[in-house]
Amino acid sequence: SRARLDNVRRLRKRGLLEDAPRKRGDLLRLTELGHHALAGGRHPDGAWNRDWDGKWRLLVFDLPQKAGRGRVQFWRWLRKNHFGRIQGSVWITPDPV
């Protein structure tokens, strides 16, 4: 579809995707930058091999439906700060908060 082609074009332009040579058919692959972006901006080996105090930080909250936009902004902040969603409004991170 057109939307898919536009998305692929945009990802290529950002340097996240590249063409992979093949005898027949088109094939795309992630660039190194694409892998980095997919890992949330963290280098996977660096994230796994770093020092850790062994503590998980658990965040449980309840935001009303009325706070719609604020809820979305808060979820984005959580993802940006490497929290993982366990379920609903329960999030976890190994990083100090």
What's the SSE blueprint?
Blueprint: H1 2-13, E1 17-19, E2 28-30, H2 32-38, H3 44-48, E3 57-60, H4 68-80, E4 84-87, E5 90-93
Describe the structure in your own words.
By secondary structure, the chain is α+β, with helices and mostly antiparallel strands. It has helices spanning 2-13, 32-38, 44-48, 68-80, and strands at residues 17-19, 28-30, 57-60, 84-87, 90-93. The chain has a 3-stranded antiparallel beta sheet with strand order 3-5-4, with no helix packed on it. It has a two-stranded antiparallel sheet with strand order 1-2. It is flat, with a radius of gyration of 18 Å. The relative contact order is 0.12.
